[in-house]
Amino acid sequence: MVQYATDRLDVTFAALSDASRRGVLEQLGRADASITDLAEKFHMTLTGMKKHVSILEQAGLVTTEKIGRVRTCKLGFRDLEAEAGWIETHRQLWDARFDELDQVVEELKLKEKFDGQQR
Question: What pLDDT does 119 receive?
Fold first, then answer.
């Protein structure tokens, strides 16, 4: 099984676990924005948005730059290959388990049909 940097996965998945943060990433995918603009768009306080942006920044998903009094947010340069690989590995595992379950169900159906014909 492929080994992944657990800390990195934890930080990324924690950052992505919040709908507001996922929304911020979607918004920044369209255009850079100030923290003030993001706070207004998501109807939250400036302090609340700063916390969300900080979490995204710690995960490497967002970068910020302060010019004067305005802090502008951009998508980070980090890719999500490790996270996608982890998800794919577990998707394959679950697919295999469901395939095995399908096999058991089919065998039970055949046995039930066979038992019914013998009566």
Answer: 63
Give the whole-angstrom CA distance, residue 113 versus residue 36.
66
Find where tokens 């998501």 sit. 42
Report the predicted TM-score, pTM, of the whole model to 2 decimal places. Answer: 0.74
Distance CA 110, CA 112 (A): 5
6-75 CATH: 1.10.10.10
| pLDDT for residue 72 | 96
Q: Where are the domains of the chain?
A: 6-75, 79-119
Average pLDDT over residues 6-13: 89
Kindly give, in sequence order, each residue whose CB lies less than 8 Å from that of residue 56, ignoring residues fewer than 6 positions away. 15, 21, 24, 25, 62, 76
